Amino acid sequence: MDNRRIGLFDSGLGGLTVMKELMRLLPSESIVYFGDTGRIPYGSKSVDTILKYTKSDIRFLQDFDLKMMVAACGTASSTALPLLKGQYDVPLLGVIEPAAKAAAGVTKNGCVGVIGTAGTIASGAYKRLLAGINPDIQTVDVACPLFVHLVENGFAEKNVAKEVAEEYLEPIKKAGADTLILGCTHYPLLRKVITEVLGDKVTLINPGVYVAEEIKARLTEADQLAEVPYDEQYSFYVSDDPAGFVRLGSVFLERPISGLAKQVDIEQFTE
Ligand code: DGL
């Protein structure tokens, strides 16, 4: 047993979709979440900036006694993590590998769609990994930057989201992908609209589900699962006013988080 915490970070509140899956699969773990709400979005930033922000997020989390760190952000995972391999004592996981493995295992026709932020798609991380797992897989990837704004502004299930999805998903539909990786934290909230556009025969891969499984497997293997009492389990830190995070975060997490979020000056942790 190991009751130390798991540290999760994201560019904002989107990583709560990953945290939700982790809480569902491992309800006795203690989790500290950092959302860089003051510097979101990461998805449209340069590699250097994403790397700098990711390093500071990790530096902040290192102040806690952690047994594992997770980049719950598609952009940080795809862009910064490959450059940070082996630099930390605490194991550091991202969302890309578990999702790519899942998609490669699910596809029947060998055509996998990937959607994510501009940064995630430009990194080519999914394409590389999928080709490494199975060179016969054809990957069709599309950056969908408007999706984040639609979700954060409450339009996830409105007609405008469907219209935007029809435009973005056209190349994936045309290629006949039978599997689609939702490669950005916000996209699981667009599941309904995406299924309306692509049809229900396309399997949607939510990376949060698979990273949670990977965490469980690793902790089980290392005999590091926790037994933490319910009311001591979760804490949240953000780099901007917690009010917005608490309001929208409860929608992402599907449970109230009021009173649990604190503000941190992330610049203090930035090189
Ligand atoms: N969390 C980011 C991701 O999953 C989306 C928001 C952003 O661009 O920072 O890539």
Task: List the defining traits of the structure above.
binds D-glutamic acid; 10 strands; 11 helices; alpha/beta; 271 residues; 6-stranded parallel β-sheet; 45% helix; globular; 4-stranded parallel β-sheet
List the strand order in the largest sheet: 4-3-1-2-9-10
Q: Quick check: average pLDDT?
A: 96
Instruction: Give the names of the bound compounds.
Output: D-glutamic acid
Task: Name the overall outline.
Answer: globular
SSE map:
Blueprint: E1 5-10, H1 16-25, E2 31-35, H2 47-61, E3 66-71, H3 74-84, E4 92-93, H4 96-106, E5 111-116, H5 118-123, H6 125-133, E6 138-143, H7 146-152, H8 159-175, E7 179-182, H9 191-198, E8 203-205, H10 207-221, E9 234-238, H11 242-253, E10 261-263
Parallel strand pairs: 1-2, 1-3, 2-9, 3-4, 5-6, 5-7, 7-8, 9-10
Helix pairs in contact: 1-10, 2-3, 4-6, 4-10, 8-9
Bound molecules: D-glutamic acid.
D-glutamic acid binds next to helix 3.
Q: How would you portray this structure in words?
A:
- The protein is globular, with a radius of gyration of 18 Å.
- Helix 1 packs across helix 10.
- The strands form two sheets. Strands 4-3-1-2-9-10 form a six-stranded parallel sheet, with helices on both faces. The chain has a four-stranded parallel sheet with strand order 6-5-7-8, sandwiched between helices.
- The protein is α/β, with parallel strands linked by helices and about 270 residues long.
- The longest helix has 17 residues, at about 160-175.
- The protein is built from eleven helices and ten strands.
- The protein has helices spanning about 15-25, 45-60, 75-85, 95-105, 120-125, 125-135, 145-150, 160-175, 190-200, 205-220, 240-255, and strands spanning about 5-10, 30-35, 65-70, 90-95, 110-115, 140-145, 180, 205, 235-240, 260-265.
- D-glutamic acid binds near residues 12, 40 and 73.
